[in-house]
Structure formats: structure tokens, C-alpha cells
């Protein structure tokens, strides 16, 4: 998967969420909590935010990254990575509600993997939607 992604790099916050954004009510005025920041592909940030928001940010992210090379392909690949990482995280900590969460994550990851393989096989770089691929809790949620 990584071999098929372009070498685009920049500053990535790596935990973009409502809790880490400052706003004046109409626009983002700042971002806090940079402890997990890294140098990587900014589309990874978009995939992670979209997965964790249950697809809520899909439209905004599509508008922001749609002119970038292979944006749809990158968003799909990174969303699959984030989903698998969440699956690993929740399996490791074994928290309450694990069985339901694991089943949901497995379904979503399976659908993403199927979509990824179809895109790879067809060598298609058309619009790929990850909206709604994640609809439940993220790290730190009750």
C-alpha cells in the first residue's frame, strides 16, 4: 500500500478534533495539543479526522484536498490504516463493549480493504468516498 502513495510531506498534527481546535464560532482560530505531531502526508490527517468523526468532516476535507495528486487514493489508503490501527488499539486495551466495537471495526475495515483492492486492481484514481465509514467512538471516548 505504501509503495503506491506519493512522497508528499508536511507538518501533521496527528490528533485533529473538536477538542484540540479553538474557534471564534465561525472559523478555526488555533489548534492546541501538538504532542503527537509528525512530519508526513497531510492527507493522513484528513483520513484520521474523517474516520474519527464518523465521516462528519468528509465534505470539508474533500474540498481541501481534491486538487492534490491522488487525493482519493491517499484518503482511502490512510483511512484503512487508521481503521486498522484503531482495531489494534481497542483489541489491546480490551475495554468494555469490545465485542461490538471489534465487529463494527472489522466490518468497516473489510469494506475499506475491498474498496482499496478494487481501486488498486482497476488502477482507478476516481472519487473515493470514506464518508460514514466510521460511525462510532474514537480513542479516549467514553
TrEMBL record:
It comes from Deinococcus daejeonensis. InterPro entries: Aminoglycoside_PTrfase, Kinase-like_dom_sf. SUPFAM superfamilies: Protein kinase-like (PK-like) (SSF56112). It holds the Pfam family APH. It comes from the Bacteria. Residues 5-65 form the Aminoglycoside phosphotransferase domain. This is Aminoglycoside phosphotransferase domain-containing protein.
Amino acid at each position: 500500500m505504501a509503495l503506491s502513495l506519493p512522497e508528499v510531506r508536511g507538518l501533521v498534527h496527528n490528533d485533529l478534533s473538536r477538542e484540540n481546535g479553538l474557534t471564534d464560532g465561525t472559523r478555526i482560530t488555533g489548534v492546541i495539543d501538538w504532542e503527537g505531531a509528525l512530519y508526513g502526508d497531510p492527507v493522513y490527517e484528513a483520513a484520521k479526522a474523517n474516520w474519527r468523526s464518523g465521516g462528519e468532516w468528509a465534505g470539508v476535507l474533500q474540498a481541501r484536498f481534491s486538487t492534490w495528486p491522488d487525493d482519493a487514493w491517499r484518503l482511502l489508503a490512510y483511512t484503512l490504516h487508521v481503521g486498522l490501527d484503531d482495531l489494534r488499539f481497542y483489541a489491546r486495551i480490551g475495554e468494555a463493549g469490545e465485542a461490538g466495537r471489534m465487529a463494527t471495526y472489522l466490518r468497516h475495515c473489510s469494506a475499506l480493504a475491498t474498496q482499496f483492492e478494487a481501486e488498486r486492481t482497476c488502477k482507478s484514481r476516481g472519487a473515493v468516498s470514506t464518508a460514514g465509514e466510521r460511525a462510532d467512538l474514537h480513542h479516549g471516548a467514553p
